[in-house]
Amino acid sequence: MQNSRIVITGIGLAAPNASTLSEFREKLVNGISEITEIDLRYFGKAPAGICSFPETLYRKKKENKKGTRAGCLGVYCANEALRDGGLDITAYSPDRIGVYIGLTEHGTVETENEVYNISKYNYDVDYWTHHHNPRTVLNNPAGEITMNLGITGPHYVIGAACAAGNASLIQAVQMLKLGEVDMALAGGISESTGSFGIFASFKAQGALAEAEDPRRASRPFDMSRNGIVISEGACIYVLEYLEKAIARGAHIYGEIAGYAMNSDARDFVLPYGKRQAECMRLALQRARLQPAEIDLINTHATGTKQGDIEECKAIREVFDNCPSTYFNNTKSIIGHAMGAAGVLELAGNLPSFEDGIIHPTINIDTLDPECALPNLVANKAVQVESVNTLLNNSFGMVGINSAVIVKKYTGD
What we know:
Layout (H helix, E strand, L loop, with lengths): L5 E9 L6 H9 L6 E5 L3 E6 L11 H6 L2 H16 L12 E7 L4 H12 L12 H5 L3 H10 L5 E5 L4 H14 L5 E8 L5 H9 L25 E2 L1 E9 H6 L6 E10 L9 H15 L8 E4 L5 H14 L7 E4 L1 H4 L6 H9 L2 H4 L1 E2 L23 E2 L5 E8 L3 E8 L5
Parallel strand pairs: 3-7, 4-5, 4-6, 10-11, 10-14
Antiparallel strand pairs: 1-8, 1-9, 2-3, 6-8, 9-15, 12-13, 14-15
Helix pairs in contact: 3-6, 7-13, 10-11
C-alpha cells in the first residue's frame, strides 16, 4: 500500500459565499465576497464570514439541535462529497472507511452558550444541558459524521490550529497508504463565528480586521491590511486509491503528490518564514518536484502585517527564479475559516486543472512592497495555458506549518 497513489474523487463544502463547489468556484473567479457584519453577544459588531446551506438536507432539525454547528456542517459536507463523487456509502465496507477532520478549536461555542443560558437562572447547574460533554469532546464533528452515515471505521479529529485542514488530508493519505482504511472522508470544519472568545482574543492582539465595508475587510498583502476576518466553513473530500477510482469511472479532481508538516519551535503567535520555507521544500522533495514545476501556490496569508511578510519571504526564498509560478489568496474573498481554511482554499483552486483560470486575490489597492510576489494574481482572474501542479500553504498558531501538493491526473 505504501506506493499506492491517492486521489480526490469527491468534494463537499460550505463556504461564506457558496454551498457547492461550482458556485464557490464561480464566486472566487469573479472575486465576489459575501463577508458580512455580525453582532456577536458581549462583543458587538465585526466583519465575519457566515455560511448558508440546507442544514436539514441530510439530517433532521431535531438531530441538528441535539448535535453541534460543527457537526451540522460536517454532515452536510460529507454527504455532499459522496454525492459529488458518485459514491454510494455501501460501495465500501463501513469498517474500512476512515473519517479524519481538522479543527482549530471545538467546544468553545457550546460552552459559551451554556454559560449564557444558566446565567438566566442564577447559574444553577441544574439548567446545564446533559448534552454538553458529547457536544464538546474534540472528536465530536467526526463522530457526528459516522453516526449519520453508519461508518464504523476509525474517526478522529486533528488539532493543528489553522493548518488542521491540510493535516487531515495528510493523515488520510497516510492511513490509506498504511492499508488501515480503503476510503477516507477528510477535511476541516470551523464554527469560530459563534465564539466571543475568539473574536475578543484577536481584538486584544490587534489582529482583528476592521473596515467600513465588511467585504473589503480581508485584504492580505495590501498596505492598509489590519487583521483577520473570522469565518465559519467546512470542506470534506473523498480520498481513494487511484486504481479503485479508475475502476468505477470516478471523476478525479487531482492526485495528492506530496506533503509536509513542521514546527517553528519559536513563538506562540508570530510566524517564522524560515520554517515555512523548510516545510515547502520538504513537500517538494516528497513530490519529487522542483520549485519551477509548481504552477500555482495558494498562499496562507491572513491579512496580518507580519504574517503576510513572513510567508512572502519564505516563498521568495524557495521559488526564486520561477517565472511560470503564479500566486493567489482565497482568504481575501472568504475570510479565514480557521480549521477549514486549507481545504476550502484547495477546493477553490482545484478546478484550475480543468479551466486554466487562476482566481484573484481581491482588495489589493496598494501592494505592500514586502509582499511583492512575481505573478501575484491581483484583483482580476488570470487565464493561463495550463495548471498541472498546485501547492497549498496553511500555517497556524504555536508554530505549526503545512504544505500539500496536488497534481492534475492525466491518465499516466
